[in-house]
Amino acid sequence: MYGYRPYYFPYQVVNTAPRSTAISLASLQKWAGTAQQFIKTANQYMPYVQQYGPMVKNFPAMWRLYKAFNELEDANTKKEDTKDSSNIPPKKEPVRITESIPKLYI
Question: pTM, whole model, 2 decimals?
Answer without folding.
Answer: 0.37
